[in-house]
Amino acid sequence: MELPEExxxxxxxxxxxxxxxxxxxxxxxxxxxxxxxxxxxxTADLNALVRRLALEYVTAYQRGGNKELAVYRDKKxxxxxxxxxxxxxxxxxxxxxxxxxxRQYLLxxxxxxxxxxxxxxxxxxxxxxxxxxxxxxxxxxxxTPQRALVATKQLYASHYFWTALDLRALVPDPSRxxxxxxxxxxxxxxxxxxGFVGKIVRGKAEAEARKGLAEALKxxxxxxxxxx
Length: 228
Hints:
This protein is α+β, with helices and mostly antiparallel strands. The chain is about 45% helix and about 30% strand. The chain has a five-stranded antiparallel sheet, sandwiched between helices. The chain has a two-stranded antiparallel sheet with strand order 1-2. The longest helix has about 35 residues, at about 195-225. It starts with a helix and ends with a helix.
């Protein structure tokens, strides 16, 4: 995991109440105290510290769940990722009506258990909006005779998003023999996408999201058809 050059420049002047990179107050303080920007190794030292912070973040989440997610204080009001995630999930009635066990798992992990489920965490870097964005996600996969479901819960994004949830479902269609429907639903909570500049960023982000979704669906369809 290495930060884009633009993020490195931003972090040199970052402070808790004004930071282009989404970090909580503790992380910003540790970066400012732990990196000597006058040293030729400053960028390498910063990336090493960021990797350590990321590891601490996910291990804390594995121990304590959503209460360990970040609190951002660079706006007029603090943004609690756990509260944003719960509010977003509460606006998805399909989870309450059809996937209540998954909903409980997403909200109460690690104390909540989900039968016949596989889960893992991963990070990736995506070109989204106007800046490369590092994301950390928690994936859980469940399968029943009625459907297979993959839920991807965003724990962290370095830009734009407080949180997000991506649901991908495979639903058998007996009328098509071995055929099935592949359904993808994505919800997110974001900031910085209002105002003149925000509208430009939002437009690009939405376009990139639609393009990425279309490409993912096409690639999945082609891969499955080759397997048949």
